[in-house]
């Protein structure tokens, strides 16, 4: 629910370092993750993203009278696996609850959630915070996890009329319930304190670590830009040395890693200004504005926030057997941070190279590409270079280009085998992305092949030398680097289909110069 | 035993978005108080070893496999909607309710 009832204006802030000299920031993060199950939490409607409005609804997720929910078994397993990966205790017995509120994003007038009996609780995760721009060193911070519980997503409202498309000033709203009922896991931290001036970085690193972990578990798409992972950030300040937590604000829907850090930084500087003035923090939700980098007041907490939770009478309790919990524990993947360290050592990448690989989401594909026979260096070059650029330009994941690890390994084989040079390989890749077939097929179809026949290359060399007697003379006189201009012309003459290194050898040999 | 005030009823009515007149509040406060008392009699027979019950059936883990079932069409879903636009449910302006 996002209701903005007050005008947007810039509030006072104090410089960040100054704020930190007087106050200790305390954070609490709530991360919502949409599971990647085929169906919704309580009904068999498809849970895919981007379908035509209201084509994935049924009496259950529309809240029609008499419709009865049934729990998605896979969603419960995913919830347990997430809990285990976060070192949580898994409840032996827990229930769903109704969270009652009136807002059209839930047609039932309640959200089926968990209240005081979450499926997973009391966990932790170690977060590696990288060195920052100010030169402060990397460190590890343990985030305590309060709980991870199961619930369902809401529908998507669009506000019509008014000037801004926002809820404020809208004439009416229209709602698409395709998203209503998609399984959500909400992961809530305990208050995070002790990070001092690195607090915003810790928050960002936590969300990033969580994203990697959930991706490794293969339980969610974790696409923050598509809303399959969303973050609410609670921030409060207490005077340095104090023991009682301050009043917090909750900044909603901070939906990129960078924004998590920026929004928390901003709230710290805003709270400090209010406290410095001797005033009190108003407990409320805040809205983050990506463009201006500030938060604005949302809804104050009020009596209407009494959600009248009560146990959901239409669902029976979830009581995972200890055998099932242990079976699921056996399916947990290697911890992503440990796995990264292991792979980096095996592949011989530098820290910077490994970071690029991770940022490009290419760890798995590189692993598969190397397994298919490519060298780690070549695999990295293609996936974080040409392919990452193409994926970026198309706004898709590097794995969604239609290029497989086997393709890249095959392409690398064509290059190391001397059939293609680099620029030809890039053309071949373009053909593979365009769906023209595998690398060898594309190379055949497009007639891309280095000329292996020295006769044709020698003819081109002699033609270019004859046309550039002055340059040839310089090379003959010992200025070997001048041959570069000649190589370019020979390659042009060969329409790019020659091995540049071989062309250089032939030029020097023809001129009687030692390479 | 219980003691539901008129203000309690007004508060609950507000949460449930039920508009009540003054005379209704007076009448309902008394009636609800009685209902709570009656239900409260359960406490007299339930000893400490009887856990609170939220469901009459002694079942747990009733689940379904994660398999897609047919959904309604958008036309069917919207058939009873008082208002619709572009395949979406139309709802009155939201802020007025605040």
Automatic annotation (TrEMBL), chain B:
Entry EC no(s): 6.3.5.-
Catalysed transformations (reactions): L-aspartyl-tRNA(Asn) + L-glutamine + ATP + H2O = L-asparaginyl-tRNA(Asn) + L-glutamate + ADP + phosphate + 2 H(+); L-glutamyl-tRNA(Gln) + L-glutamine + ATP + H2O = L-glutaminyl-tRNA(Gln) + L-glutamate + ADP + phosphate + H(+)
Swiss-Prot/TrEMBL GO biological process terms: glutaminyl-tRNAGln biosynthesis via transamidation; regulation of translational fidelity; translation
Broad enzyme group: ligase
Job description of the protein: Allows the formation of correctly charged Asn-tRNA(Asn) or Gln-tRNA(Gln) through the transamidation of misacylated Asp-tRNA(Asn) or Glu-tRNA(Gln) in organisms which lack either or both of asparaginyl-tRNA or glutaminyl-tRNA synthetases. The reaction takes place in the presence of glutamine and ATP through an activated phospho-Asp-tRNA(Asn) or phospho-Glu-tRNA(Gln).
Record note on quaternary structure: Heterotrimer of A, B and C subunits.
Name of this chain's protein: Aspartyl/glutamyl-tRNA(Asn/Gln) amidotransferase subunit C
């Amino acid at each position: 629910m996002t209701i903005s009832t007050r005008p947007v204006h810039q509030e006072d802030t104090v410089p960040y370092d100054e704020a930190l000299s007087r106050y200790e920031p305390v954070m609490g993060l709530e991360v919502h993750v949409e599971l990647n199950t085929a169906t919704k939490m309580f009904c068999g409607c498809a849970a895919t993203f981007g379908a035509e409005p209201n084509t994935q609804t049924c009496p259950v997720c529309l809240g029609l009278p008499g419709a009865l929910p049934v729990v998605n078994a896979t969603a419960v397993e995913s919830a347990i696996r997430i809990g285990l990966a976060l070192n949580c205790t898994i409840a032996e017995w827990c229930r769903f609850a109704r969270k009652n509120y009136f807002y059209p994003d839930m047609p039932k007038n309640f959200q089926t959630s968990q209240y005081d009996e979450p499926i997973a609780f009391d966990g932790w995760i170690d977060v590696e915070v990288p060195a920052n721009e100010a030169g402060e060193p990397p460190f590890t911070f343990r985030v305590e996890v309060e709980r991870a519980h199961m619930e369902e997503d809401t529908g998507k409202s669009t506000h019509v009329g008014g000037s801004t498309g926002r809820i404020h000033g809208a004439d009416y709203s229209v709602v698409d319930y395709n998203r209503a009922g998609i399984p959500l896991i909400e992961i809530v931290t305990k208050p995070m304190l002790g990070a001092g001036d690195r607090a915003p970085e810790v928050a960002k690193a936590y969300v990033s670590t969580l994203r990697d972990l959930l991706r490794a578990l293969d339980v969610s798409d974790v696409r923050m830009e598509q809303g399959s992972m969303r973050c609410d950030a609670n921030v409060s300040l207490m005077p340095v040395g104090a023991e009682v937590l301050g009043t917090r604000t909750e900044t909603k829907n901070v939906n990129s890693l960078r924004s998590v850090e920026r929004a928390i930084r901003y709230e710290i500087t805003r709270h400090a200004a209010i406290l410095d003035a001797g005033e009190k923090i108003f407990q409320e939700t805040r809205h983050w504005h990506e463009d201006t980098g500030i938060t604005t007041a949302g809804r104050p907490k009020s009596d209407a926030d009494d959600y009248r939770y009560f146990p959901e009478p239409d669902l029976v309790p979830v009581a995972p057997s200890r055998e099932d919990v242990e079976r699921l524990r056996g399916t947990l993947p290697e911890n992503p941070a440990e796995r990264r360290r292991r792979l980096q050592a095996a592949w011989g990448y530098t820290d910077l190279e490994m970071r690029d690989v991770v940022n490009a989401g290419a760890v798995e594909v590189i692993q598969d590409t190397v397994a298919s026979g490519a060298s780690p260096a070549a695999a990295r070059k293609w996936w974080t270079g040409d392919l990452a650029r193409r994926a970026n330009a198309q706004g898709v994941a590097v794995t969604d280009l239609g290029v497989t690890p086997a393709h890249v390994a095959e392409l690398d084989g064509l290059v190391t085998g001397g059939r293609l040079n680099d620029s030809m390989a890039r053309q071949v890749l373009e053909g593979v992305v365009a769906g023209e077939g595998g690398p060898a097929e594309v190379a055949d179809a497009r007639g891309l092949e280095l000329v292996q026949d020295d006769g044709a290359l020698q003819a081109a060399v002699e033609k270019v030398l004859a046309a550039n007697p002055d340059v040839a003379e310089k090379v003959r006189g010992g200025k070997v680097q001048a041959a570069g201009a000649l190589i370019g012309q020979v390659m042009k003459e060969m329409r790019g289909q020659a091995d540049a290194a071989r062309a250089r050898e032939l030029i020097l040999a023809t001129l009687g110069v030692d390479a | 035993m219980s003691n539901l005030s008129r203000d309690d009823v007004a508060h609950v009515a507000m949460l449930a978005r039920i508009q009540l007149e003054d005379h209704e509040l007076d009448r309902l406060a008394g009636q609800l108080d009685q209902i709570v008392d009656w239900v409260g009699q359960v406490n007299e027979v339930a000893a400490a070893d009887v856990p609170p019950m939220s469901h009459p059936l002694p079942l747990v883990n009733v689940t379904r496999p994660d398999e897609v079932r047919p959904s309604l069409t958008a036309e069917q879903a919207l058939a009873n909607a008082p208002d619709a636009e572009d395949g979406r449910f139309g709802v009155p302006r939201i802020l007025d309710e605040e």
